[in-house]
Amino acid sequence: MEIRIALPKGRLGEKAYDILKKNGYECLELEGKSRKLVFFNEEKNISYFMVKPSDVPTYVERGAADIGIVGKDTLLEEEADVYELLDLGFGKCKFAIAAPNGFVEDESKPLIVATKYVNVCKNYYDKKDRKIDIVKLNGSVELGPLVNLSDVILDIVETGSTLKENNLSVIEDVADISARLIANKSSFKFKRNKIENIVEAIKKEIGV
Known about the structure:
Layout (H helix, E strand, L loop, with lengths): L2 E6 L2 H12 L5 H4 L6 E4 L4 E6 L4 H6 L5 E5 H7 L4 E5 L5 E8 L10 E5 L2 H10 L4 E5 L6 H4 L5 E6 L3 H5 L2 E10 L1 E5 L1 H6 L1 H15 L2
Parallel strand pairs: 1-3, 1-4, 7-8, 7-9
Antiparallel strand pairs: 2-3, 4-11, 5-11, 6-9, 6-10
């Protein structure tokens, strides 16, 4: 029974594949310079495909992939109906609210929030019962407060250096982010042994 694995393009996918390779789930076809989109290891009965990170949950939820590796940020934003099997412990950062240094919130009116992550933002402030006005941006959200487009921003923060350079600072942490292993719900039912073998192999590799 074949296991289909969706990997995100970029560093996250490379790191995840390296872990899988070390535990016997290598696919030499994937390592070469090929323009193919799907890569097979017939001996191990596995296939890989590399996709845009934000698409991983979609491939897994709809069953095109049995399992996938994806950042928690994407999981929270896409709200896919999948099983989250394992925190892989790498790709660590966080969602945070940032504002201009010295910002004082006026709670008598809606807070204007610039972000790429509309669902994360809405869910966070719904829990706080805070009225907001979301400004969806696809580029550098740090610019929002600097040109009075927004009061604050919700974004991914790693080192905080970009915030600092633009006289912004974190005022609230929203959620921790790291790479996660996810599974299609039906696949987990019918291919449980194979998927759990992969999970156990990864756990040994990352020391969980």
